């Protein structure tokens, strides 16, 4: 990227009025590829201005809105714009007080958008309902390759929905679920899909209350999976005997897969 194609305004206390002025320029700009607006206290009103610009702009590829104050209303506005935009490739929305209703809107956007390859929703309490909405979109979406859902209040039902999506999705390569609570039931659901899925390369299940049984379910499922290259099972209380069993399962069933425990 050239200097004129990247703009970082991180931590600049930009008001909604400032965002509005910036977005007027973005609407007609034809060179900017990456825009970083992290930590600027952007509210739903500022998000509305940004969404309008996204509907017009045809060059921006990377947008970082981490740690703002979008809430559901602001994120919903962004989601509608993403559904109309055909150039954006990565969208960072972590730490924005987003819940299930905005996740549903983002799911709808994924059904319409064919350019977005990376979506980061970590540290937003989207819950099982929100995870299920995004998962439903993954059954039809063929563009997204990376989905980050760390610390998103996801339990077994959300993992079940994601598992069902992985059973049919052929493009997602990275799924990060660190810091949720999918438990043994969620692990079993994901394990079933891993026997079928061939596109996933990295799966992070760190700190998900899997226990030994859940972790072994995941490891044992790898005999039918030839694509996964890295799994993180740290912080799941598998114990020494569980670690030995998992290591043996990986060694015999998926020797090319690296496991963190």
UniProtKB/TrEMBL annotation:
GO terms under biological process: nucleocytoplasmic transport
Source organism per UniProt: Marmota monax
Cross-referenced PANTHER family: RAN GTPASE-ACTIVATING PROTEIN 1 (PTHR24113)
SUPFAM superfamilies linked to this entry: RNI-like
GO CC terms: cytosol; nucleus; perinuclear region of cytoplasm
Keywords linked to the UniProt accession: GTPase activation, Leucine-rich repeat, Repeat
Protein name: CARMIL C-terminal domain-containing protein
InterPro entries: Leu-rich_rpt, LRR_dom_sf, RanGap
Molecular function, one GO term: small GTPase binding
Domain of life: Eukaryota
Keyword Repeat among record annotations: yes
Spans through the membrane: none
The keyword Repeat belongs to this UniProt entry's keyword annotation: yes
